[in-house]
Write a structure and sequence with these properties.
Elements (H helix, E strand, L loop, with lengths): L1 E4 L2 H10 L3 H7 L4 E6 L16 H6 L4 E4 L1 H6 L14 E4 L3 H11 L2 E4 L11 E6 L8 H7 L8 E5 L12 H22 L8 E7 L8 H22 L7 E8 L12 E5 L2 E5 L6 E2 L2 E2 L3 E7 L15 H17 L3 E7 L18 H4 L6
Parallel strand pairs: 1-2, 1-4, 2-3, 4-5, 7-8, 8-9
Antiparallel strand pairs: 6-14, 7-10, 9-15, 10-11, 11-14, 12-13
């Protein structure tokens, strides 16, 4: 689940003074799995009934409190260590400029306790689209949503990302594939940070069997996606100056867990985008369908405090990640490829065990 690094003084202010207000709601939501502090925790503070102290307050919400002094104190000197916990939030006793620099370099939320943004994890936006709306694409959508959250990894999950709605045939199938790639590029151009000091991870989950009933044609189209993303990964280094690793997973529609991936989602470290109908949402600055697209920071549904509702973004994030993990563990991978750039040899296999996306491998993400 969700992990926060902070010190006891900050936690005392939040839990006892209920300030900042939204951080108080986050800690009280029952969705913070761990809080790590630099201070030693006295034995008497770990009493599960100790509701009067900081640790007791958090334990009553199901939160584990741990001492991580060496790790927290080392971050100002070795800031890349934040990627050991790439989806955590770091609220540190450092100056605001240093915190901002760490956030920009590694795509984690990092703030000085002297300059806390209380709204960073509660932003929400929805856009109601009609088929054929003009002047809208992914860049406009993310601009309207005031998207500023950092990230270092992304999952794009839509079983029909590269497939036609209903009609079949080679030309229709090729057009649908190109539309999927167009929207992938639009999403990435809007989300990828301009500055990043490490490899950025993108996982795309879809069903290649929806391309065409002919297996040879399916293979050709899957390989076409691989080639296009290789070109994109190679070209992005000229403007973004960092590597992108793509993992492509085509899921087997005969797998028992297949239906769990029915929803269309863009999942990142701190936000979820969900589309009513499809992520092939735009073409030529026009919407391609009547639907609503929602943008939610992970805790946008906690005010008023309703953390576990059916549309809870943090639950949606965790459930999507867990469903993909289950598919991989159950051998439900139809095709798999991992791509960095043109110089790397790409092999298409039916084994997904090598998927290295940070959102998938980070062990703090469990239901």
């Amino acid at each position: 689940m969700f992990k926060v690094f902070a010190n006891m003084d900050f936690l005392e202010g939040v839990l006892f003074d209920k300030t900042p207000k939204n951080w108080y709601n986050i800690f009280m939501s029952g969705n913070v799995a761990e809080v790590c502090v630099p201070e030693e925790i006295a034995d008497e503070e770990i009493d599960p009934m100790g509701s009067v102290d900081i640790v007791g307050n958090l334990q009553l919400q199901g939160t584990i409190v741990k001492t991580e002094a060496e790790y927290i104190n080392d971050i100002p000197r070795n800031s890349r260590r934040v990627l050991e916990n790439p989806n955590a939030v770091f609220l540190l006793d450092i100056d605001a400029k240093s915190a901002e620099d760490i956030q920009n370099r590694y795509g984690v939320i990092c703030q000085s306790i002297e300059a806390i943004d209380d709204n960073v994890l509660i932003k929400a936006y929805k856009y109601d689209l009609s088929d054929g709306n003009e002047g809208i694409d992914w860049a406009v959508y993310f601009d309207k949503s005031n998207h500023t959250l950092p990230s270092n990894a992304l999952i794009i999950c839509d079983r029909y990302m590269f497939s036609a709605d209903s009609k079949s045939g080679p030309r229709v199938a090729q057009d649908a594939l190109e539309l999927g790639l167009l929207n992938i590029r639009g999403i990435l151009s809007s989300i990828l940070p301009k500055r990043h000091n490490d490899e950025y991870n993108v996982l795309i989950v879809f069903d290649s069997s929806t391309f065409d009933k002919n297996e040879d044609q399916e293979n050709r189209m899957f390989n076409s996606i691989v080639k296009n993303l290789k070109d994109y990964a190679d070209g992005i280094k000229k403007t973004r100056h960092y590597k992108i690793r793509f993992d492509l997973i085509s899921v087997d529609h005969n797998c028992i867990n297949y239906k769990k991936l029915h929803n269309r989602r863009i999942i990142s470290n701190y936000f979820v985008v969900r589309a009513d109908y499809k992520l092939q949402a735009f073409k030529d600055n026009m919407s391609t369908a009547t639907q609503t697209i929602f943008y939610d920071a992970l805790f946008s549904k906690i005010v008023p405090l309703k953390p576990n509702g059916p549309d809870s973004p943090i639950k949606s994030q965790l459930q999507t990640i867990e469903s993909i993990r289950e598919l991989i563990q159950n051998g439900c991978c139809r095709k798999y490829a991992s791509i960095v750039d043109k110089q790397e040899e790409i092999g298409v296999t039916t084994r997904c065990g090598t998927c290295t996306n940070r959102l998938m491998t980070n062990n703090s993400y469990t239901l």
